[in-house]
Write a structure and sequence with these properties.
single chain, 193 residues, alpha+beta, four-stranded antiparallel sheet
Length: 193
Amino acid sequence: MLTDSSFFRRAEIQLLMYVTARALGQPCCRTWTLRNDKALQAYADFTSRHLVNQSEDVLRQLNDEAFRMGTKLRRLFFLKKKSSAVRLIVSLYRNIGIDLEMMENGTLCFRYCFFSSCYTPAVCVAASALDEGFIRGLAGLPSSRLCFSQRITEGFSCCLATMNKRNIQRNSNCQDVRHHTVPSPDDFRGEVT
């Protein structure tokens, strides 16, 4: 598969850096010439510095930029079915050091995350705006929200999240489903059009 190549991984990390820097109004660091592990560490360092104490407006901008890029990738890879979108999402996350599994009940289980050793819980919450945008765009779920019930950076063994298709206004509490009703397992099931 194309996404398994070293070149694709470096291009993916560079694209992630570009989207993040653009949303933050920061200059984009060049990472594509670095080895994969060094490029990933450079991105982790960049986001650790720049995602601290960001406003809701900046998080919304991160989410919007990631959504636009996810939508472009959806078109580029001709994703029409949920199963194709899930395979690509899992593959893209694997490339950036995240072991993601879509469970039968629709829960996203992040079993390992490279960034969990670099991020504080607050930076992890901010970075989730990118996750939500990319996943919404790739899966073709424009009005969905990614709501976490637990995170590795909070001391859990894995991160658990669900996609909630209800149109919820972004606020700081929605990142944590302990403050909201738990979405239905059917929220991320079915064919994506």
